[in-house]
Amino acid sequence: MANLLSIFLSSASQGVLWALLAIGVYLTFRILDIADLTAEGSFPLGAGIAAMSITNGLHPLVACLLGFLGGAAAGLVSGLLHTKLKIPALLAGIITMTGLYSVTSRVMGAPNISLLGQPTIFNWAESLGVTKANAVLIVGLLFALIVVSLLVLFLRTETGLAIRATGDNLAMSEANGINTDNMKIIGYMISNGCIALSGSLLAQNNGFADLNSGIGTIVIGLASIIIAEVLFRNQSLLIRLLTVVLGAVIYRFILALVFELNVEPSDSKLASALVLVICLSFPQIQQKFQLPKKRKAGVPNE
Fold first, then answer.
1. Where are the strands (E) in the chain, listed by range?
2. I want to staple 72 with a disulfide (CB 3.0 to 4.6 A). Which of 6, 53, 189, 288 is the partner?
3. Closest Cα to residue 22, out of 252, 233, 277, 286?
4. How far is Cα 32 from Cα 281, in angstroms, rounded to an integer?
5. 121, 198 in Cβ contact below 8 A?
6. How do residues 193-242 score in pLDDT, each as one tens digit?
7. HSE, side-chain direction, 13 A CA sphere, residue 116
8. How far, CA to CA in Å, does 160 sit from each of 153, 242, 247?
9. With helix as H, strand as E and coil as C, how does 211-246 read?
10. Distance, CA of 89 to chain centre
11. pTM
């Protein structure tokens, strides 16, 4: 039992950091109804920018902000490719993701950057006397709550409502005079900014930034979203975003339990894919094996 609790706390500390990525993916995947693969390029870009900033003496919080701005710039590129050049969203994301590999390599100047011995955003929480895992959990929750709060406030503004309308019904939004191209670009930028921020925080937590850290990140984001939607349906915007955070924690916990079965590290991506398949197919499985409801007395069959 104690070991299970330890695994959960470790998963929670990692999950709240990955939750920012899941929120970013949620914005394009659910709010804008766009499949955006830029995530796999903006994630390591944010990590690389943060690592370079910290090693050059900048404050870790400033490094996180710069990472967010780098991701927003990547989202801007994808948004312009999709809206102005009329490249399909999926292909636009792949193009940007491919180009970002070289950009991140240039930014980092090496395949990976070590942050051992460097100050991180988690140091102030550790100075309170808590363990490293608890410090990560505290800082991660603060960032997640701040991002969720700001997003809820923004998505209730006129621009935010226009973004949501664009994702719900593109033709109707255009008919009502909404500049849907601009709304998509803003959504792309915020989404990839959150994803890059996640990369910035995880690089500081892991103690290094790696050029290939973005591989499979879209799977993590989607799995967190699907878990949240399976467990909690038809919720308000605030609750939906909070459940995405919880979904990321649950996903990391499931993976941790899988790794307890002595799964090889090289098979981690396969394990992630299998967990996503199970999450995606769960509603169908549940519907197939659901027992028919008992008919009330006196009510005829329909």
1. 112-114, 208-210
2. 189
3. 252
4. 23
5. no
6. 999 999 999 999 999 999 999 988 998 898 899 889 888 888 899 999 99
7. 2
8. 8, 18, 24
9. CCCCCCHHHHHHHHHHHHHHHCCCCCHHHHHHHHHH
10. 18
11. 0.91
Q: How far apart are CA 81 and CA 98, in angstroms?
A: 13
Find tokens 């090496």 and name the residue: 110
CA–CA gap between residue 118 and residue 168 (Å, rounded)? 45
From residue 92, how far is each of 88, 192, 236, 263 by CA, in Å? 6, 14, 31, 35
The Cα–Cα gap between 6 and 212 comes to: 29
Q: Which of 133, 116, 138, 135 is nearest to 10 (CA)?
A: 133
pLDDT digits (tens, 9 = 90+) for 97-149: 999 999 999 999 999 999 999 999 999 888 888 888 899 999 999 999 999 99
